[in-house]
Q: What sequence folds into this?
């Protein structure tokens, strides 16, 4: 039985990775999960310089999900390369490094610094606010998304995955923009912007006022958007948004994702990724499917 998939020329032993920001770089989960079994580990977002993140509280539970406003807190690339990438080098899994930035120059600098590392793929988080354009996210403006993709591709030594924001009128417009910019793959969806009020304190549940909603509540939206993108562009897709079970993952694969990422479920059940991998294999065995690629995009 073949579970391996290809993302922009990189072969993953199976189609399961983790969503950035929900798994650290695997260090916190190593005692629960055999990282060698994952198709890839996707790291928490890292920038060219350290970011302190937002004020607390930064996380709130919602019905069927979670809202976070961490603010992409990270130690910067120097620490990340010495600590996280060195840790992951000991495992037989692909490494996807998630990159964030506040300007085009930030992204380019970070990608250049990652050129000579053991990263296999780069995932560019374009949901970051562009400080030079008044705070609009790169991923909400097609022209900006295409520009940042082209700038990153010019210096990248690894294949580039552009992570798309769902907080747009038409996700296919953004997908076509990054494809035009030279992206090698896309991942979607990032979190949906939400808000929660603490009625006892009569204030916002997270200090940032708004946060990114993730978890099972957003899965139907995510599946719909992956389907739309799969039918709009030719690039491989990593699908994510509310995946808890093998059945959830199979929905994404069937509408056109070549791989999937488990996110919020990791906080609830650290074994989720392994259960999803085993569940996909059990499904294939039950139906006599020999190759995972026969499932990908089978629902038109």
A:
């Amino acid at each position: 039985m073949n579970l391996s998939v290809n993302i922009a020329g990189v072969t993953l032993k199976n189609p399961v990775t983790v969503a950035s920001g929900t798994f650290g770089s695997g260090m916190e989960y190593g005692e629960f999960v055999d990282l060698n079994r994952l198709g890839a580990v996707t790291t928490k977002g890292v920038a060219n310089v350290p970011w302190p993140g937002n004020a607390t509280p930064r996380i709130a539970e919602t019905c069927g999900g979670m809202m976070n406003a961490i603010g992409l807190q990270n130690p910067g690339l120097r620490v990340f390369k010495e600590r996280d990438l060195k840790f992951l080098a000991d495992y037989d899994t692909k490494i996807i490094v998630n990159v964030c930035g506040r300007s085009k120059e930030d992204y380019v600098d970070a990608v250049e610094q990652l050129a000579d590392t053991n990263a296999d793929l780069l995932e560019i988080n374009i949901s970051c606010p562009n400080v030079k354009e008044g705070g609009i996210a790169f991923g909400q403006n097609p022209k900006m998304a295409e520009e940042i993709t082209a700038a990153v591709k010019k210096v990248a030594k690894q294949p580039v995955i552009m992570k798309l924001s769902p907080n747009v009128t038409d996700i296919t417009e953004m997908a076509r923009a990054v494809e035009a910019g030279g992206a090698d793959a896309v991942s979607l969806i990032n979190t949906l912007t939400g808000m929660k009020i603490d009625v006892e304190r009569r204030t916002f549940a997270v200090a940032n006022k708004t946060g990114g909603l993730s978890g099972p509540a957003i899965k139907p939206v995510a599946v719909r958007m992956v389907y739309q993108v799969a039918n709009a562009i030719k690039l491989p897709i990593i699908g994510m948004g509310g995946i808890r079970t093998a059945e959830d993952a199979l929905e994404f694969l069937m509408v056109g994702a070549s791989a999937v990422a488990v996110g919020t479920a990791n906080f609830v059940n650290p074994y989720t990724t392994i259960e999803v991998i085993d569940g996909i294999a059990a499904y294939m065995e039950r139906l006599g499917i020999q190759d995972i690629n026969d499932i990908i995009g089978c629902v038109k």
About this structure: The two ends are 24 Å apart (CA to CA). The chain has a mean pLDDT of 96.
